[in-house]
């Protein structure tokens, strides 16, 4: 079984990458179509994965409790309670600036995923056991690295603008235990994966050089 595993693992992974590629494409088309219908004020109803109002889009928000101080009990042993933020969904019209920004964030993520699976699919289709190191594969790995770095940069800018544009909406909301209310966004992204792929591309290029040297020697 162990000797046969290399022969079926590669084609299996290749088929899975192709499957995920078409799946992400389908989700991208569905998301774009639903967003366009909402922008046209068509009564599309809620998204399949959420409970949104027609022509509205959800923005993740968080609010802190009235006090963020740690609560200590008087009994023995002492217990400590640290209040955490609460989260929810703020539904805004999709034609508003925050709504458009959330749609763009979704499109950026889906387009990046589709592009990434496309490059992976091309890599698996072009790799050969006899000649595993190819310049085209190195270029695709480099493209994937810059793709993830670009996604991180674009999402960071969009989230910062979203945070700024959503602040006026919070003036209309009052919560009994509210200390502050803000967009619940994480300023992160696949930048680390992008750097790893760029480093891997350099190692791969070194493998190409060694392969060429070996062929010339033979």
Could you explain the architecture of this structure?
The protein is mostly helical. The protein has one domain (5-217). 59% of the residues lie in helices and 11% in strands. The protein contains four helices and five strands, in the order αββββααβα. It has helices spanning 5-39, 97-126, 135-170, 191-217, and strands at residues 56-63, 71-72, 80-81, 86-93, 181-183. The strands form two sheets. The protein has a three-stranded antiparallel β-sheet with strand order 4-1-5. A hairpin with a 7-residue loop joins strand 2 (71-72) and strand 3. Helix 3 runs antiparallel to helix 4 (191-217). The protein starts with a helix and ends with a helix.
Alpha-carbon distance between the two ends: 34 Å
Radius of gyration: 24 Å
Total helices: the number is 4
Range of strand content:
5-15%
- Major beta-sheet overview: 3 strands, antiparallel
Indicate the low-confidence ranges by residue numbers.
44-50
SSE sequence, one letter per element:
HEEEEHHEH
Order the strands across the largest sheet as they lie in space. Answer: 4-1-5
Return the domain count.
1
- Helix-residue proportion: 55-70%
Provide the structure class: mainly alpha
Let me know the number of strands. Answer: 5
Arithmetic mean pLDDT:
81
Shape designation: extended
Protein name: DUF2975 domain-containing protein
Pfam families: DUF2975
Keywords: Membrane, Transmembrane, Transmembrane helix
Transmembrane segments: 20-40, 100-120
